[in-house]
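Notes from the 1:1 (GR / supervisor)

We went over the backlog. Supervisor wanted to see one worked example end to end before approving the batch request, so GR pasted a single chain during the call. The sequence is below; no edits were made to it. Supervisor asked that the structure be written out right there so they could see what the output format looks like.
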Amino acid sequence: MAASALSLFFTFISIRFMETRNTRDKQSIQHLINQILPALAQTVHQHIQPVIPMFENFVLEQVVDTWTKDPASDLDDEISIEKGNVQQVGLRLKLESFNKPGAEPFDVTKNMLFKLEYSSYTVGPDKNSPWLEKVYQQRWEKYEYEEIAEQWTEELIDSISAQLVK
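Structure output shown during the call:
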């Protein structure tokens, strides 16, 4: 009897540890910013290589949303990575001044948003169109980077094509 109670206790402790470890906090946000976003940006960059020369300027940057407040938080709470209350991070691609003869110059901006919930996050072109959902600290597989980069590249090509037919 004591052995099963002890086993149950350790199972409870293990579950509580996993719950606290897999929630949005400073460490989970830093992991996304320092590990996941750079790897994803590198994969995206590889996928969009054929498109880049069509434009005069290209920027692929990380973004951290420090203005969207958690609806459950106090209105006076400062939003920061340090406090672990950032709601969104992501990548922003800017392609400026399309430079092909016969076409009017135009710019294209695309965002990839990581919407940070309490115990998981979604990845997509906006907060309402998730392509992938992960729990914090969950390892990304190579194919997931590839799939997200392919989807984003397809949307980018669609945006460029739409501009060309105007």
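Supervisor's comment: The two ends are 75 Å apart (CA to CA).
Batch request approved.
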